Amino acid sequence: LLRDKFREFSRDTGGLGQERVDAANAAAAALIAGGHPERAAVAQWQAGLNEAWAELLELVATRAQELAAAHDLQRFRRDARQVLAQLRDKARQVPEELGRDLRAAEGLERQHRAFEHDVQALSAQVRHGTAVQEAAGRLAAAYAGPRAEELRAQEGAVAAAWAELRGRCQRRRRLLGDTVEQFRFLRAARDLRLWMDGMHLQLQARERPR
Predict the structure, then answer these.
(1) pLDDT of res. 101
(2) How many independent structural domains does the chain possess?
């Protein structure tokens, strides 16, 4: 809000002020060119006005830079909080259930792949664009002391939450894969045992040689 208001102030000040300064310079130039007896004083006044105008423009530019920097800082803080909350929320959503049979385990495995796809989309917010790491590096270079430490701490919290979420996803993917393989083995083993039992019954049912 402050930045938007100052943009309007800067635009109005620059436009109106430049017109008035141009008019003053034109009047001074006319007096000097016309050989006015006070042309030396007029030239001195003209130089003073131009110097004051340059100082005012510099102040306006400095204020605009300060507001832009403050805006970037507050946006970073907001983005960092939002991304951190998303990461932690996603981490809480990683279930522990592995399934009681092959069908259930395979279904959970498919669900987890879709979940990881959604999680991967968060990496763009962590690493790129308005991303926390890039913004933290840029802002930390512009600040020093406690504020730079705060920026790095927020970046570190986001990075840690991202690492924890990825770790949980990887562990669950591995456990689900192991569970699915275990159930497939058990199914194959049961099928093989049933086949062997059937063969055994067929052997027992055959006539014995006399």
Answers:
(1) 93
(2) 1
